[in-house]
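Input sequence (162 aa), recorded before submission:
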Amino acid sequence: MTLDANSDPILITSITDRVSLAFALLNWVMGGRCLPMALRGLRILIVEDSTDIRDVFTVLLRAEGAHVTATGTGREAAEIAAEKDFDVVLSDLGLPDIPGDVLIRQIVAGAKGRTRVVVVTGYGEPYLSRARQAGADVVFTKPVEWTRILDYLSRIGLAASA
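Predicted structure, token format:
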């Protein structure tokens, strides 16, 4: 999305549009200077059945320079992960087709390299322990501040090596 003084009126139809607009406006206010990209080059697979949450994560991660693939089902995520390598899988536990801990086990077992698994869920125990036992590196409980996820992803040192 590009904004200038001659831009047509903007129709905001979804939360993704609102987040994209916010980044475009910020970039415009900053005179077109690039925003910091803490996750430049990181390959991230998002698995989230809520469209709005999936779209927001996608926009925010791309704004940080990550290469993002997103899906709403566990089965599709398993298929994608079998075909492509990812540095990070960011997944919900409450998926419509398979339990999140089952998906985590499948992805970790099939990964060619070290894939970090970050879980963001509204579930409590015993699901949090199951996610960790399945191979999750970190589990965040919804609602979670975006900066906590970004700080973790920036800190694990993957962005520098991607």
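Checked by second reader. The CA atoms of residues 123 and 141 lie 7 Å apart.
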